[in-house]
């Protein structure tokens, strides 16, 4: 069986984000169920995110220099599945920290790997990024609802087996071959790519803005399910959580013209402003309708920021350096900044959830101050 490149990459986004829904939306809930405190949860997730920062910035580009994107896409999902199995036997904080770090060194490689596949294929005219990435949002919706239903029916103990099962599904789907394979048999430039990107002032500004806005999601990602559980009945929790990927799906589906046409600077400014509004709204929400509204703003806080950076990489960064660019984005914007802010939020939340969210709003607002410095007048060659 073979699929078109667009269908093949869409299926990868779909199945990966099903696993991501379990790990990101419910992992804090699972850890709390296992008896860990909020500060311990923040520390464990922080270790995982620090490991992510290392692996996607250094290990992924280094491996991609010797193995093609296509080969990595077949091997990594099986390694992720194997790395998830020990979660079934976690007992005590030291073991949790070791497991979180080990899993964080393998699982996050899927993020820049899928994004690099998509941006390379988009640059070569094999797909349109927005609608293709929308399948990832659909996968997140499916994963969120399915996991919520399983948790309600069977309890939080089901979360670790659910993560392992979804990772196995991702690995099995990865066996399918794409047409136009040669377009994806690309090796990256490794460390040399970092030198090129370090000389690109606009890339560094875009990366910094993305790190501030995406990092501000730390409190929500790690403790959002707990917050939702405080404001809504248990049966409503998965439906409230799924509103975020629903809004994200809508934005990516419309991204080809209506959103991408706004330009990188405008997209970053919108992302910063909406993220700030979202965290303030979530901080002062006392009922589920306001909580639902804050969830719908995910399209602006996360998806718009992600799209801004992706559009810049697709249009302004050469194909041979895109792996390094996506690695830095996953490392710094989605990893290191989130790791640091997760640890901070974990300590603040013990005293005040509202104060933690207010801190996140200040971080996201800082991004808008750098937007006027971005220049987008340079095109990259294919």
UniProtKB/TrEMBL annotation:
Transmembrane segments: 12-29, 41-63, 75-99, 105-122, 134-152, 158-176, 203-223, 235-255, 267-285, 291-313, 325-349, 355-374
Subcellular location: Cell inner membrane
GO cellular component: plasma membrane
InterPro entries per UniProt: HcaT-like, MFS_assoc_dom, MFS_trans_sf
Domain of life assignment: Bacteria
Keyword set, alphabetical order: Cell inner membrane, Cell membrane, Membrane, Transmembrane, Transmembrane helix, Transport
Residue ranges occupied by any Major facilitator superfamily associated domain in the UniProt entry: 9-353
Signal peptide segment: none
Membrane topology: Multi-pass membrane protein
Protein name: Major facilitator superfamily associated domain-containing protein
Source organism phylogeny: Bacteria, Bacillati, Actinomycetota, Actinomycetes, Micrococcales
């Amino acid at each position: 069986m073979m699929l078109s490149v667009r269908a093949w990459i869409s299926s990868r986004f779909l199945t990966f984000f099903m696993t991501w829904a379990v790990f990101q939306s419910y992992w804090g809930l699972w850890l709390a169920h296992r008896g860990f405190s909020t500060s311990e949860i923040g520390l464990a997730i922080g270790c995982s995110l620090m490991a992510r920062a290392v692996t996607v910035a250094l290990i992924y580009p280094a491996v991609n220099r010797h193995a093609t994107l296509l080969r990595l896409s077949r091997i990594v999902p099986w390694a992720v599945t194997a790395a998830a199995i020990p979660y079934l036997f976690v007992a005590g904080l030291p073991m949790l920290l070791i497991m979180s770090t080990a899993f964080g060194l393998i699982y996050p490689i899927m993020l820049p790997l899928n994004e690099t596949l998509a941006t390379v294929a988009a640059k070569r005219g094999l797909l349109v990024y927005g609608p293709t990435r929308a399948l990832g949002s659909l996968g997140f919706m499916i994963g969120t609802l399915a996991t919520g239903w399983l948790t309600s029916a069977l309890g939080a103990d089901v979360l670790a087996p659910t993560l392992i099962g979804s990772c196995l599904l991702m690995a099995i789907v990865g066996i399918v071959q794409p047409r136009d394979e040669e377009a994806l048999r690309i090796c990256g430039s490794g460390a040399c790519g970092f030198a090129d990107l370090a000389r690109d002032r606009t890339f560094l500004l875009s990366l910094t803005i993305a790190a501030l806005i995406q990092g501000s999601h730390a409190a929500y990602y790690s403790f959002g399910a707990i917050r939702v559980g405080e404001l809504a009945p248990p049966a409503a929790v998965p439906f409230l959580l799924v509103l975020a990927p629903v809004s994200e799906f809508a934005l990516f589906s419309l991204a080809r013209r209506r959103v991408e046409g706004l330009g990188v600077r405008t997209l970053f400014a919108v992302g910063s402003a909406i993220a700030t509004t979202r965290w303030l709204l979530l901080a002062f929400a006392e009922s589920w309708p306001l909580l639902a509204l804050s969830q719908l703003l995910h399209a602006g806080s996360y998806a718009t920021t992600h799209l801004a950076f992706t559009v810049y990489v697709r249009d302004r960064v050469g194909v041979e350096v895109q792996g390094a660019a996506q690695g830095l984005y996953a490392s710094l914007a989605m990893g290191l900044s989130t790791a640091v802010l997760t640890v901070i939020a974990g300590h603040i939340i013990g005293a005040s959830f509202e104060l933690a969210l207010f801190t996140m709003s200040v971080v996201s607002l800082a991004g808008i101050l750098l937007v006027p410095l971005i220049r987008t007048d340079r095109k990259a060659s294919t």
